[in-house]
Amino acid sequence: MLAAHIHQRIHFICLCLLVLTLPFLVFPALNSISLVLLVINWLCSLDFRQKLLYWRKQPVVWLTVSLCFAYFISGLYSTNTAAWLAAAHMKLHILAAPLVILTSKPISTRQWHQLLSLFVLAVMLATFVDFAVAFYKHYQYNQFQYWQPSFFFYHPLAYTLQHAGYTSLYINFCLVILGIFILQTPATKRKKLLGALLILYFTGFLLLLGSRTSLLTFILLLLSFFILLFKQRHLLKVGVVMLVAAVSISIVVIALSQPLQVRLRSLLTETASTSQIKIDGKQDYSMGRSWDGIPLRIALWRCAWEAIQDAPPLWGVGAGDIKEVLNEVYKEKKFRFAYYKGRHFGPHNQYLSTWLELGLIGIGLLLSILFVPLYQAFRYKNYLCFHFLILVGIFMFSESIFNVQKGIGFFSLFYALSVHQIMVRE
Predict the structure, then answer these.
(1) Alpha-carbon distance 88 to 70, whole Å?
(2) Element (DSSP H or E) covering residue 6
């Protein structure tokens, strides 16, 4: 009994370390060590009979393990073994975190709230570091002789995760956590005021990052939360005040950030130019023009879809050969920009990436992993898990999140923790 209690405490400490190190993946080893410690503690507990019972009760465990093994098995027909090993190593996150968390004794509701609070705190500290690094780089550049807003916008601002899109993803999840906290948690007015101030701070930072997919997701989250507010009319006035404050902050940030103004205006021009994209294999139209955002992604999606049509339909080309297969399509379509001077662009879409790598089996497993708990979350009114899955599901349209640790680490950890809360409810 004492040993089980000790293992449970170590399990929670390891989860805290994982949550704390997630926003600081500029040092990825810290997060990897935390995951290894979590797995070692799980193995040392030796209570495999109980773990097997948890496994049998939850179809989600079977789905995540099956997807991970599909990546492993694809090595049997991947010709590039080195690339497959690198991909398989990254996909271990899909196996490790869900398997350990979903087959362990559920953490308490109090501990779950502590982990969420810890994540919000860690992301807030990461944004402070981002601001500090941006100010330092600005000082090195011109000793503040004149203001250079580009240091405080998009990728240059996202130091701790080295990517504006993933930083925006983390911030959007923080906004979900804080919104659910204000709506559903019986806390003091002081704590709810602090939560509201954090929402306004993260909204401003999200705008400075300028990730258009995340800004669109943020708007959808606002609409969803207002639907929830109408069900809790006593909070409707608070919601209206928050909306007015968020819009005011947005207007101020946009007015003060010239790069953000340019990026938002470019959204209209890029959307209009997508119909003019030519990748026909007759002539190279890719060089000598500006590729960014929507046009580039649509071009990459077209090439990925061409590759999917030529790949084995059931099992795909394998996790090790996706780079070579896509480069062949780029060359065939004369899309030189995508492979010029050794560069390589993936599909920038997790659904297309999984479909190309693992065929219909892989995309079927991925959709099941998302939609099975989404239905359970909706059924049991677990709004946090529901919005997390919506958030990640939308983000997967613009990024292949399973190919980088800041994506797959975030998804596998909070996916398992959120689904575990549904298991507790069931």
Answers:
(1) 10
(2) helix 2-21
DSSP 328-393: HHHHHTT-GGGTGGG-----S-HHHHHHHHHHHHHHHHHHHHHHHHHHHHHHTT-HHHHHHHHHHH
**Average pLDDT of the segment spanning 5-24:** 93
- Give the single-character DSSP code of 402: G
Position of tokens 């789905």? 63
Task: Give the global pTM.
Answer: 0.92
Asked if 134 and 243 count as a contact pair (C-beta separation under 8 A), the reply is no
Per the listing, tokens 């990546």 go with 71
Sign of CA dihedral 375, 51, 366, 349: positive
Q: How many CB atoms lie within 10 A of CB 241?
A: 11
Residues 97-116: tens digit of each pLDDT: 988 998 888 898 899 999 99
Nearest residue to 418 (alpha-carbon basis) of 8, 98, 114, 52: 98
Query: Hey, what are 42's tokens?
Result: 């799980």
What type of residue is 400? S
DSSP, residue by residue, 7-22 = HHHHHHHHHHHHHHHG
**Count of Cβ atoms closer than 10 Å to residue 195 Cβ:** 18
Residues 6+ apart with CB under 8 A from 140: none
pLDDT tens by residue, 184-215: 777 677 888 888 899 989 999 998 998 888 88
Question: Residue 318 to residues 71, 244, 360: CA-CA distances in angstroms?
Answer: 7, 50, 12
